[in-house]
Structure formats: structure tokens, C-alpha cells
């Protein structure tokens, strides 16, 4: 075979292979580009994976903290309930679990003293006992006038309180006068209102055994929401009365309503002189009569008084007795 013929065959083979070579070259370029894109995608996925791993780690840490907090709260509540039960069994506690909460839910803390006084006077004017404005005398005469007026109408007697379990030694003339003056002043005069008011006060005070808060009141120091701005205000203006009035601001509003500056002497004076009226003042400011008139349950009343449902069973027991006593 001549050299020319062989050359022609090689040229023909080369011409046939060249398109294939070009295609392979193009495929290689495309494959390289694809590989580059894949590499970028892998890197991106790795970055996302790293971020997800970190987020998962952070969430796990938060979860552990939340679990620790829940455990702490459960342990604290367990200790709290145990302490309350022990005190109740010893006869040294009556509704203490709701005392701080009670006054924290009082609308008084969100209102100015002038607004409170205006509302109290408006309610007092409508009450059968009057606010004392009908007499020419001032503070002392006002209290005397209220007592004399309500002597004509007795809503609750000593015998009725005895049936509820109140200690007869606590049922003094002064205490009963304050009770009936309170009921008249704040128009707590229907069976439904009396039942709820007396049953809640009975629970909160241990049937009259504790007209003031058992705690020292130091927890209320520097409580500006209660008006406690001076040193010693916490203990001085701790819970007083059968639904405990708490804080300088509330004492000031009550003092103006009663026209009795001695109320600012503190807890002992209020607990002794106005155990019921201070409770009625709270009752009135929280519109409890309206709630009673709507047919509220003991649970609903307790929520307003306590801020929760502490002692609900005991409150219901007192209420059921009141239903039988106050027809």
C-alpha cells in the first residue's frame, strides 16, 4: 500500500475522531463547571448544617434552663403549700396565701388618691348609713353618726357569726357595730352580697382570729406601687382588716373616705377600729357587689379577692354555711 493511501486513511480517521474529541472536550468543560457548582453547593450546605447545629445546641441549652426553672418553681410551690398546710393545721393561718396577691389586684393601685376618694364619697352618699356629711361634727362625730344610723338596721348578728364558727370572744359590740356600719355604708345588704362578703372575710381572717396580716410586712418595703416610699412603710401599712388593706396609698385613700387621720397611724389602729369597714372599702373599690348581683360563683369571687384560687374549698364551705344562715 502506498504512503499516499495510508495518509489519506489517517486523515479520514482524524476527521472522524475530531468531532468526538471536541464533544469530549466540551463535556469535560461542562463537567468541570458542574463540579464547581456542586462544590459550592456542598460548601453552602455545610455552612447551613453548621448553623443548624449551633442553633440546635443553643435551643437545647435554653430547654435545659427552662426545665431547671420549672423544677425550681415546682419545688418552691411544694415548700409553700407544705408551709401553708402546716400553719393551717396549727390554727395560725387564714388565707395568708392570698394576702399579697389580694392587694396587688386592687384597682386602687392604678388610680390616684383623689379619684379613689371621689368614688368612695359617691358610694357613701348612696349608702344607707351615709358618709357622715349630714352631721356638723368632724371625724369622731362622723364615725359616731355612722354607728348610730346603722343601729336601726342589723344585717348580721353575733349568733349568725357563731354559727359560722366565729369565736364569741371576738364578737364585741364595737366589732359588730363596725360590721353592720360597713354593710350599710357599702350597700352589702342583699343575701347574695352578704353571703359572699362574710364567707370571704371568714376565710381570710380565720373566722375573725386574725384582723391583720401575720407576716412582718417587710416584703412591702419600697413598694412604690403601694405608695410605700418611706422607710418602715412596709410593716406599718401591711395588711389590715378582714380583707387586708395594704400600702400607704390605700391607707391614705381609706383615711380620706372615713375622715379619720388616725388611720395613718398604721395597721394596728385599722385592725382594731375598722376590721370590717376596711374590708368593705376594698370590696366597694373592686365592684364586688356588681359581681355578686350577676350570680357569680364562689370561684369567681375568690379569683377577684385572691388573685387565684387558694383556699377555694374552705371558702366554698363558709359560703354554703352562709347560704343556710343568711336567707
Protein model, in words:
The chain has helices at 3-89, 99-104, 113-126, 139-150, 158-163, 173-185, 191-205, 233-236, 248-258, 267-273, 277-285, 288-293, 298-306, 312-325. The N and C termini lie far apart (136 Å). Helix content is 65%, strand content 0%. Helix 6 runs parallel beside helix 11 (277-285). The longest helix has 87 residues, at 3-89. By secondary structure, it is mostly helical. It has 2 domains: 7-94; 158-325, Lysozyme, CATH 1.10.530.10. The chain has 14 helices and no strands.
List its traits.
mainly alpha; 2 domains; rod-shaped; Lysozyme; 14 helices; Lysozyme-like_dom_sf; 327 residues; Cell_Wall_Dynamics_Protein
Strand content: under 5%
- What is the CATH architecture descriptor of the largest domain? Orthogonal Bundle
Identify low-pLDDT runs: 87-151
General shape:
rod-shaped
* Oligomeric state: single chain
SSE string:
HHHHHHHHHHHHHH
Q: Please state the structural category.
A: mainly alpha
CATH topology of the largest domain: Lysozyme
Fraction of residues in H or I helices? 55-70%
Question: End-to-end distance, in Å?
Answer: 136 Å
Biggest β-sheet, characterized?
A: none
Mean of residue pLDDT values = 75
Mind telling me the CATH class of the largest domain? Mainly Alpha
InterPro entries: Cell_Wall_Dynamics_Protein, Lysozyme-like_dom_sf
Region (Disordered): 119-138
Protein name: Peptidoglycan-binding protein
Biased composition (Low complexity): 122-133
